[in-house]
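Consortium newsletter contribution from the modelling node. Members have asked for a concrete example of what our holo predictions look like. Here is one, prepared for the flavin-adenine dinucleotide complex that several groups have been discussing at recent meetings.
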Amino acid sequence: MPDPQFESHTIVIGAGLAVGACLKQANIPCIILEKSDRVGSAWHRHYDRLHLHTDKKNSELPFLPYPIDYPRYPSRSQLIEYLESYVQKFRLDIRFHQEVVSARYENDQWEVQAQSSLYHANNLVIAAGRNHEPFLPTWPGQDLFKGTILHSSQYKNSELFKGKKVLVVGFGNSGGEIAIDLWEHGSQVSLAVRSAVNVIPRELFGVPILSIGILQSKLPSYIADAINAPILRVAIGNITKFGLRKLPYGPITQIRRDRHIPLIDIGTMKLIKNGQVTIYDGIKEFTEEGIIFKDGKQAQFDAVILATGYRPRVNTFLTSVSAMIYDEKGRPLSSGYETKMPGLYFCGYYVATTGMLREIGFEAKRIAASIAGKPTPISQSFV
Ligand SMILES: Cc1cc2nc3c(=O)[nH]c(=O)nc-3n(C[C@H](O)[C@H](O)[C@H](O)COP(=O)(O)OP(=O)(O)OC[C@H]3O[C@@H](n4cnc5c(N)ncnc54)[C@H](O)[C@@H]3O)c2cc1C
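And here is the predicted structure:
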C-alpha cells in the first residue's frame, strides 16, 4: 500500500516549535515532522545535571516567557516543561515518529518523504538541530582500550563512574559540566584539551554574560574583545598557569569567526585551579589501560567520555539540492533566511554571541514573515 499523502502550506522538519508558533500567529498552516515520540527529544536525552548556560530572559521562544518561579538558569526538565507548554499554547500540529528520509524540490513543490507518509508543501523549514549527530573522532589503538568509551550524548549521570578514573575529551560546555558532575560524585577526573581555548564566566558582576554579548553585538569583534580582555583577566585569571593554552583572539571573534562557543564557566575552572581536575594535552593514541597524550605523557583511565560535539548533517535527508545550500560537512550556509532554493529555510543553525535559543526566536519570526509575504500556489484546503 502506498504511504498516505498530506499537503500543507509549510512543512517543518524537526523541533521548529518557534517557527510553528510564528506561522500560527500569521494564520499559515504548518505541519511539524518529528522523528522521535516527544517534544524536546534532544533535551530528554541530555545529561541530568544540565541547566541552560544562557539566562531564561534571553532564552525565550517567541510570545511565551518562562514561568516566573523558574530560576535564572532553568534546568533541563524545566526547559522540557516549557517546550511542552509552548506546543499546547499554540496547538502546534506535530506528527511524531516521522523521521524525514528525503526532501526534494519537484514541480515547484517540496516533496518530503517521512517514515510512513509523504508530504507536499510550498515551503520547507529545516530545524533538525545543529546538534544533530554526535561527532565521534577516532584514535589509533582505540579498539585495544579495555575501559568504557562513550559520547557525551550517551552520558546521563555519574552513577557508573563513582571512584573511577575518567578522562573527559573536549573543553566545550558539555565537557566542562560533565567534569563537574563526575568530580562531585567521586570520580577522579581529567580533561583532554587539544587546542587553545577561551573561557568566559556565566555572569559578570551579577549580569548574565549573554546580556553583555547582546549589548556588544553591533561592535566589531576586535573592539568588543579588546574591551572585554582586561575584565576577563580579572574574572577568570590566567588560564595558561593551569596547563591550558589561550587562543590568540578573544571569545567574540571565536564565536563569530570560528562559530565556536567558548567554555562558559560554571565551576570547571575552580576545580582545575584547585588541582581537582587535571588537564592533559590532546590524545595521541589509546593503550589497553589508558591514553598516550600528544606531549608524550601517559595515564591510566577506566572510562573516556567524548565531549567532542555534534554535526548538523542536513545532507543526510536533503537530497538533490544544490551544494550551494550547505557545505561538504552538511552545515547549512545560512540560517533564518530563504536559501537559494525557493521556499527552503534553515532555522537554528546560526552560532551567535547572543545565544542560540534567542536567535532561534528571531529566525523563526523572520522566516514566518518571509513565508507570509508570498503567494500560495498549493490549495489552502489543508489536511
Ligand atoms: C548540551 C547542550 C546544552 C545547550 N545549552 C544551551 C543553552 O544554554 N542556551 C542555548 O541558547 N542553547 C543551548 N544549546 C543549543 C541548543 O541545542 C539549542 O539552542 C536548541 O535546543 C536547538 O533547538 P533546535 O530545535 O534547533 O534543535 P534540537 O533541540 O536539537 O531539535 C531538533 C529536533 O529535530 C528532530 N529531527 C532531527 N532530524 C530529523 C529528521 N530527519 N526527521 C524528523 N525529525 C528530525 C530531532 O529528533 C529533534 O527533536 C545547548 C545544546 C546542547 C547539546
